[in-house]
Amino acid sequence: MSVEAPNVAIAFGSVAPPQGDIIQLSAHLGCTKEVSSFEVLLQNWNGKYSPNGAYPITVGLDGNLSVGRGANCPLLLTCRVESVKYESTPLESYLRVSGRCWGERLFRRVVTKTYENKKGEEIVVDLLDYYVGLSHERSSTELVEDTDTTYMRLEYADTPVIDILRQIAESSDKSGVIGFDFRVASDGKFEFFPKGSKTSTVSLSERIEGSQYSKDIHRVRNKILVYGVADKSVPSSKDSWTESLSATDGEWTATSGIVSADDTFQVKGSYSIKTTAQSLYYASCLFTLNSGKEVDTELYPTLNLWLSREPSFNGNVNLTLFDTSDRSAGHQFTVGSEKWFQTQIPVGTTNADQWQVQSGFDWRQIKKVKVTCWFDGVGSGSFWVDGLFFGGRRYSSVKEDAGSQSSYGLRELVEVNEELCSDLECESHAKALLANLKNPAESLTVQSTVVDFGASPILAGDKVHVTLPNEGVDGDFRVQSAQYHVDGKTQVLEIVLELGREKPLLADYVYALKSRTDHLSRYKTARRGG
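User: That's the sequence. What structure does it adopt?
Assistant: Structure tokens below.
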């Protein structure tokens, strides 16, 4: 198969070495995980490219590399010279020039900033405009594409720009599929787009001269355990127990005084539980859980309540837990008057030293919660309880694939993600990870000296179709990197593509439905209650 000779044009600053001076040229095109880079070996006759030569090439210069065949010589890389090395013998002199594309600017700056209620693309554009200085528009077309992800709050302190961009790319979704790519294109423009959305027009059919195809089970995971934020509670609403004397899970009674539901004074919801004493030593209320609603504090290690008292009480409060056998554990604390105070008390076996525990008390079967406020002697007054719940458990989900386990053995993955705020979100995320990881990864390297890409080089992040009958390969692959090698002596242009095939990572959890859009918006911060 005959192909036209390579056509190369390069420039560093105002210096444009002729193709005859190019001994070797290598360009490595990267995407998301890496930026593009290059190396050019030049014949340096009479030191013309040296510092004192007629055409000095120095570090810091901007430049460009164009590579093609025949009359075609499309721009491949807009770059910056970062290294020059002079190599010489008594008879020969060479200059080795290397550097990276304009994506090297992504590594220069660190960011200290908080983003609140911002879409993924808004954050990317802000970084480009105010920290990086890369254009993201081509012929009036915005190159940073919209995401369906809204980040409620992201805080950064001295964080490199590249790290933030990777986080946004890895976590943003579009139309239900997670994952964006970004690259600095040949013309130096920054592009941000959904993975797999850029399809190369170049056909590789019958032009692949060498290939290496592999399946790798190192990444296989067929049992996924996902834990979310430690904010799961009983009750799940965190306020329903204090919205009525007869709650869904239990009932309030008075053990000293009179108990009532108060809709005039509350810190959460519409009601609080009010306990009033007249000429008594103390006022006390008791919440008794219905049968089957007992709480396991080994799973929910925090007891939360809001309390407000009148000044007639001395400030001493007794909190008592009863198990199903009426054994007790008591905790004492003090609280100020005439405002709401939140109290969060560790519970469970590991926190038993903070309680006065009756022998045999079962932390796994909490049946009753009693709150007692004391007077100095005999007194009268009221106190209020609101937002009573047991919490501190992580949301979670476990998903497995029996077929994958049978083929590759049990291979587990545990992920803790503080942004997951329900068991359903954890379940959806676990399902997505399992679908993506239960099968072996496929990787493919192809090499060719006869591919003619015309005016449209294959870029990292592009999608290409590959058919290799002997290997049973026939499908679309994502270009992880593209390497272009020009040998000036043999006049050969070789292209090496590192390809990968992954299942799309489906959007793993839904945070909110916006009434003004058909898309799903995902809010990426933990919603903490209490």
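Residues 423-437 form the longest helix (15 residues).
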